[in-house]
Amino acid sequence: MMNIFFKTCVSLSALGVVLLGSCSDKYESGLPKKVTFSQERLMDKIKGGWAGQTIGVTYGAPTEFRYRGEMIPDSVEIAWGDPEYIKGWMEKFPGLYDDIYMDLTFVEVFDRLGVDAPVDSLASAFAHAGYNLWEANQTARYNILNGVMPPASGFWKNNPHADDIDFQIEADFAGLMSPGMPNTAAVICDSVGHIMNYGDGWYGGVYMAAMYSLAFVSDSVEFVVTEALKCIPEESRYHKCISDVIAAYHESPDNWKIAWQRCAENWDTTLGCPTGAYEPYNIDAALNSAYVVIGLLYGHGDFGKTVEIATRCGQDSDCNPASAGGILGTMLGYSNIPAEWLGPLKISEDIDFAFTSSSLNDTYKMGYDQALKVIERNGGKVSDTEITVKCQEPKAVKLEQSYEGLKPLRRTTYALKLNDGPVEAPIDGNAVVVMGGVDGNAESGYIAEVEVSIDGEPVEIEKMPADFATRKYDVYWNYDLDGKPHKLKFNLLNPNDENTVIIRYVFEMKAE
């Protein structure tokens, strides 16, 4: 660890960062206690973070979820090099940039209301935004629009997708607001991340934000990856997964496919997400975070190699290189991202991201202004010429785990149309998630009312909008069953001619 810190002292000085005091003025881990930046260098790093993730998500765009449970073969060429490549994606498929515009939802609220913006304002902006959502995000949106506010909106018993990747791809802003202050980034994550996630899903965002934060004050990728993990409780599944990747890297530092294979054997199992259960599709934060770390470690500080490896790991192969590229971009700084990657970005920096009023150039400025305020709030100093950051030694956040005491039991496929009359499904697990939806005219204004009964006794009436943006992602869930045989019954109370309500899957979990 001492060697890592010595390298950091020398390299940061060479890049125009001044460490206060000597290398002895540090935490036991080797993290400096204070770092001073020129205004230009701090801005350069913030720009590098936003630029890196924009480049990364664009690079991985053609392969997103096309490779599930398998690496993207070396024979598959991933396009890059067109000077207008990013501009083309932004204009023709703006929804690709959810990694950015989701962050910007919160950045714009902080810009409007200040860095102490209340979580209700952040949640409201998220819930009423014009973009479409999926998994944990959509469930959280439905919860909020129906009066279930954070942190309850992300809690696993209210959100069956709580361990999914959603907050992981939206947490970049928290680290970029908190240079050298991973614990402050974690506090920001506590408020925002629990809007839509819990447990491993929340940890994905905390860990990404911590890596961004530490990338401001170290240029050792291994140090940043390892030190940021201290923010995650060692007892958690998430910590064990990332630790396994780091161990694989130490054993085989030149072959990322060995680390990928270890993840496949040990961690490519969905515990609670009903969409990915018993499928090669894996949207869990832990596995996808592992792919980010594989990209960072085996990329060895090379920007192109980092985003390519993170992409070739598969699954969410645009979001993962976005995170890896953003973290490394922060470490390198905008001015040190190679021209072949930065060139296509520069002609796009004045284009507003979809569903926002912010371009990259706007984002750079907002991010810088917010970072200055957070630095001052946490013991740092800002002058007309330089900024001094009071660094924080990472501390573990609270332990929380979704689906406690449960494991997958089965997922049964159905194709039951409630318009044809009530339907039944037998269950005997301790928890159940029923997947389905409202098909047909999404603009009809229709809100299906589905009465759910257990053994003939009504338990809930589920309201399911036909509108895609406000839809209920899952029909029904219950994590407090007794494990005995029961019959679920679904009765559509208000059928219409324009829409069909369908039960597609029933996912059950059993007590361990």
Task: Tag the structure with descriptive keywords.
single chain; 512 residues; alpha+beta; Jelly Rolls; 4-stranded antiparallel β-sheet; 17 helices; globular; disordered N terminus
Description:
The chain is α+β, with helices and mostly antiparallel strands and 512 residues long. It has two domains: 2-390, ADP-ribosylglycohydrolase fold (Orthogonal Bundle), CATH 1.10.4080.10; 406-511, Sandwich (Jelly Rolls). It contains 17 helices and twelve strands. The chain is globular and about 70 Å long. The relative contact order is 0.15.
Give a short summary of the structure.
The chain is an alpha+beta fold. It contains 17 helices and twelve strands.
The average pLDDT is 94
Structural class: alpha+beta
Helix content: 40-55%
| Rg | 23 Å
CATH arch. level architecture of the largest domain: Orthogonal Bundle
Considering the protein shown, what is the CATH homologous superfamily of the largest domain? Answer: ADP-ribosylation/Crystallin J1
Question: In whole angstroms, how far apart are the ends?
Answer: 40 Å
